[in-house]
Write a structure and sequence with these properties.
The protein has 365 residues and is an alpha/beta fold. It folds into two domains: 118 residues, Rossmann fold (3-Layer(aba) Sandwich); 165 residues, Dihydrodipicolinate Reductase, domain 2, CATH 3.30.360. 40% of the residues lie in helices and 23% in strands. The protein has 15 helices and 13 strands.
């Protein structure tokens, strides 16, 4: 599988290393960046034969089967559309677009091209998450009742001083969009469709346009309810997911990726043998990470199938992000049907603008 990387920063390095770990299943044929010197240096370091600054020209020359979009979020849509126009499948880093309107444009471009677009949500692909999903689907754990999804990370002000960070127009949001989205996607991969969100977002401590924390209560179609927290203000960093089923509590505690030792299972009284036997008898040994997802993507493309994570699955996650912003900034509960083309939160994640922008304008006046 011939692969081109668009964007040659740190995330592209992770992609290159993960692809190289797949035993020759992928050949990286090009690296593209608006910074020509960065592109050349990256390609030289990773032994990539072709570098350039003009994506269309590079695609026309190298004709990759698959393009990995690793640019800052504001450039994702245009890079993906260009790759599709040149007949390549696309794997795009999160978030795939800055808004739901842009996401609809990406879906239309994919449909028109006949090619596939998948989003990088690598936490789905560790064996622990796959085992949890299988046990839930098989009914071993009973009905899901309560979930916790907390992404409590720490980012300094210097982190946000990079020009494109902490801005709605280039990053699409704060920790709700750019940090906690991985944990929220895994939450949805296990629990399925969400139905209603109540939320609060604040700009507590960082000099940014976006929020630096959010808290949400999420209801699901299966009756489960979840607490969702996204923060970049938390010195003791942690990514924590907890699922309380009728027959067991399943917990995942990690930071940026997990292995088998990150999971904890607590069966309900009377269900110890069935739960533990099923848990320890399932798929094991694969940590979460880009390499696990890339292998699954190649498996699908080589079989002529749609690769994970599909745009339909990603749309559910993007709508949850938009719903947290909408519920926070309107003060009202929000459902999926409230986020269509007629909604300001379809056009922009911040809708008409966060409350603190209004306060700032009033102070200036």
């Amino acid at each position: 599988m011939r692969v081109a990387l668009v964007g040659t920063g740190n995330i592209a390095r992770i992609h290159a290393e993960a692809l190289r770990g797949l035993g020759g299943r992928a050949e990286i044929v090009a690296g593209v960046d608006v910074d020509g010197a960065a592109a050349k240096s990256f390609c030289r370091t990773h032994g990539i034969p072709h570098s350039g600054t003009d994506l269309a020209r590079v695609l026309d020359t190298t004709r990759p089967d698959l393009v990995h979009v690793c640019t800052p979020p504001g450039a994702h849509l245009e890079a993906a559309r260009t790759a599709l126009a040149y007949g390549a499948h696309v794997l795009v880093e999160k978030p795939p677009t800055l808004t739901l309107r842009q996401f609809a444009e990406l879906e239309a471009a994919a449909d028109h091209s006949g090619r596939h677009v998948a989003t990088v949500f690598q936490h789905r692909f560790g064996s622990g998450a796959r085992r949890l999903r299988a046990l839930h689907d098989a009914g071993v754990l009973g009905r899901p009742l309560l979930a916790i999804c907390h992404t409590t990370w720490y980012r300094t002000q210097e982190y946000f001083d990079v020009p494109w960070r902490g801005r709605w127009d280039t990053e699409g949001g704060g920790p709700t969009m750019g940090h906690g989205i991985h944990q929220m996607d895994l939450l949805l991969a296990i629990l399925g469709e969400w139905t209603q969100v109540h939320a609060l977002a604040r700009r507590q401590a960082r000099d940014v346009d976006t929020e630096d924390l959010s808290l949400a209560h999420v209801g699901f179609a299966n009756g489960c309810v979840a607490s969702v927290v996204n923060s970049v203000l938390s010195p003791r960093e942690q990514s924590y997911l907890r699922f309380d089923f009728a027959r067991a509590t399943i917990e995942l505690t990690h930071l940026y990726g997990y292995g088998e030792d990150a999971w904890r299972v607590t069966p309900a009284p009377g269900h110890e043998e069935a739960v533990l036997s099923a848990w320890h008898g399932g798929e094991r040994g694969v940590p979460s990470g880009h390499q696990a997802q890339f292998a699954a993507v190649l498996d699908a493309l080589e079989a002529g199938a749609r690769p994970p994570v599909t745009l339909a699955e990603t749309r559910r996650t993007m709508r949850l992000v938009a719903a947290i912003y909408a519920a926070s900034f309107t003060g009202s509960p929000v459902g999926p049907g409230d986020l269509g083309p007629g909604s300001p939160f379809h056009e922009r994640m911040q809708g008409g603008g966060p409350p603190w922008r209004l306060v700032a304008r009033q102070e200036v006046a």
